[in-house]
Amino acid sequence: MDNRFFIITVDTEGDNLWRRSTEITTDNARYIPRFQAICERFGFYPTYLTNYEMAQSPVFCEFACDALRRNTAEIGMHLHAWNSPPFFDLTGDDNEHHPYLIEYPPDIIDSKVAFMTAMLEDVFQCAIVSHRSGRWAFDETYANILIKHRYCVDCSVTPHRSWKNVKGDPCKDGGSDYKGFPENAYFIDLHDISKYGNSGLLEVPMTIMLNDDNRLCWLRPMRDNIRDIFYIIDRAVAENRLYLEFMIHSSELMPAGSPTFPEKHDIEKLYETLETVFEKIKGCGFKGATLKSFHNYFIQKGICSE
């Protein structure tokens, strides 16, 4: 394959939201430039999928505006329904339950997407066209609302993974079930987001594969999962896949910012892993792409998504 793309996505959000604290801080913004620097050194260009509190962080906004000026990153939208205006009390304690946006009434979903889109475009002075949902929750209503607000690429789908056993609103049915969804990029059917369509909204599913033992392997750094990541890369090359999509949370770049990498030495180990993984991906011929540039390539080449 002449072109293979490496898409780095960063869920850019407050510090250690797994704690569900009522006070959200954004100290992790100070740790993002180190990550950006290693990406740039390998010729990779992250898409920072940015939520409400990070769009209010002067530290992050200064960093991101500089990266945008240098054309070394993209800003997309990431929406956490429970703390993104306009506020709507769904469960009586949304901060505790972290309800999925798809559990809110459609008019509230629309108003939250509209608010976040306008806010990001005002702060960063660019069109916002890429998106990942909070807590990986996506459905047909949400997709139609994204189209209404001029989004052209989404990356919320996690193939093979169901979130049905992960509650948002305790009175409802849990998250999205992506079992049976495509592993590769496709234009969605707005009546059934698991199917190929002609909507103009490109779905770029997370790179998740089932290994020979039928175990899920994600292209995201966890503690001691480099063998899974190498399995993914080698298989993607063998199958001539068009892209690899990597993800990390911005808070995972900071000590105590997440349960995944809680200590300073864990962060140093993370960067050792990133160095090794990025070197392998670069050596396999993958080029850096943001979600927007990948979408544009898809369109320009007239790639059939089926």
Give the biggest beta sheet: 10 strands, mixed
The CATH topology annotation reads as TIM Barrel
Write down the secondary-structure element order. EHEHHEHHEHEEEEEEHEHEH
What gross morphology would you assign? globular
Parts with pLDDT < 50 across at least 5 consecutive residues? none
The CATH homology group name: Glycoside hydrolase/deacetylase
> Structural class, please?
alpha/beta
Distance between the termini: 17 Å
- The CATH class is identified as Alpha Beta
The number of domains is 1
What CATH architecture do you see? Alpha-Beta Barrel
Helical percentage:
25-40%
Mean pLDDT: 96
DSSP helical segment count: 9
Give the radius of gyration: 18 Å
- Give the DSSP E fraction (strand runs of 2 or more residues): 15-25%
Number of strands: 12
What does this structure look like?
Strand 1, helix 1 (32-41) and strand 2 form a beta-alpha-beta unit. The relative contact order is 0.18. This protein has one domain: TIM Barrel (Alpha-Beta Barrel), CATH 3.20.20. It has 306 residues and is an alpha/beta fold. It is 33% helix and 17% strand.
Give the SSE layout.
Elements: E1 4-12, H1 32-41, E2 47-50, H2 52-55, H3 58-69, E3 74-79, H4 94-97, H5 106-124, E4 130-133, H6 140-148, E5 153-154, E6 186-189, E7 192-196, E8 202-203, E9 208-210, E10 216-218, H7 226-238, E11 243-249, H8 264-283, E12 286-289, H9 291-300
Parallel strand pairs: 1-2, 1-11, 1-12, 2-3, 3-4, 4-5, 5-8
Antiparallel strand pairs: 6-7, 6-8, 9-10
Helix pairs in contact: 5-6, 7-8
Kindly summarize this structure in a few lines:
This protein has 306 residues and is α/β, with parallel strands linked by helices. It is 33% helix and 17% strand.
